Amino acid sequence: MRLFLLPISTRRSLVYSQRLNNQLSSEQTYVDKITTRAAATWVKWEKAEKGWKKSVTGYGNKLFQRIPYEEWGLKSIPPLSARRKDAELQAKDMVELTFPPSIIKAESVLDTLRTLSTERKAIHKKWMWGSILGMPLTIPFGLIPV
Known about the structure:
Helices cover 54% and strands 10% of the residues.
């Protein structure tokens, strides 16, 4: 895996991950298969001329535009599975970090990556608990036949 740390402004940076060894479709995890299927469904719904599918994707795209670009960059980093963790601990799968040394000091790179990975943790935790607490209120509406 290769990580790119790109400075966007003087205070903000974008991290992007590139997988060097692409998995074959037979070796994909369930998470990868579900993600691929959800993306294909979303594209199919966006192509709809009109109807509820088109309006759902329209509202969803408006919500996606509110997500900061740092979050989109973190989305490119694959989740740490047990197999990947073992490969990295045995130094089979090295992580290469690329950044412009003329703009970003080498001493501050790890601090920048740590900040990018942890600064929104409290926000996500708050919304997760809000979603969990709101589920009993919304489940009955999902069960009502349309």
